[in-house]
User: What shape does this take?
Amino acid sequence: MSQPPITVPGYSIHGRLGKGGMAEVYLATEQALQRQVALKVLLHREDQAFTQRFIQEGHIVASLQHPSIITIYRIDQLADGRHFLAMEYLAGGDLAQYKGQRLEPARALRIVRQIASALALVHDRGLVHRDIKPGNILFRDDGTAVLTDFGVAKQLQLDSELTQSGIAVGSPAYSSPEQAQCQALDARSDIYSLGVILLEMLTGHNPFRGANYTQTLMNQLQLQPPPLPEPLGEWQWLLERMLAKDPEDRFADCHVLLASLDELQDAEQDHTRLSPALGPA
Assistant: This one.
């Protein structure tokens, strides 16, 4: 980590963890409680629209108490006027670190279950995340998946602004067809994005990612999910429901998705219990 160029009263800055287009994240220790935190700091204070979105992110996440949603400790301003968020620090990295790798089905489904449970709360609060992707899924030391980065989350009743602006907010390789077309979004858009992640975890490949932005969006509109390898065939129906091009054909919400995941788990456990009895006498 490089030497940090900022000073935040009450925190000892250890170094920068990463930097994006609008904000950077530092590893720090909160001096009063002697706990490690991640400080997400805006790069500029002039962009009032983004500043408001940043503050909104803090308020949204602070209102959501769930083991698979990042915890916000504080929102405040630096001496130069830039805002920052103090969040829990998760040392397990993000899901993007496994890009190109196939995860064990049990682990992949456990991650999907944890994130779907978090999204059920998000959606019950009348919000849609709109940017479900591997880089926004972090891990605790015990392996628990945690949803983060609510910077483009939006209240469902306000999402018509997206259509009016004509800008597809999110990450194209994980965007739903309706998101690619700048249409109003609901919970089923997040379910589609989670389905892309599940497909990528099971196969090690995201077939919707094209050579460029336009091709990727076209793939989301036209490309059907490929058949899974035979050993993974029992999950094909789950993926097809999550990745249906028409939102009406997807799971109605994350509660229904979670119930289907429970059914899959129960069926697999029954199969495991019966398998020894099916062998030679």
In short: The helical segments are 48-62, 105-124, 160-165, 177-180, 187-203, 213-222, 236-242, 254-274.
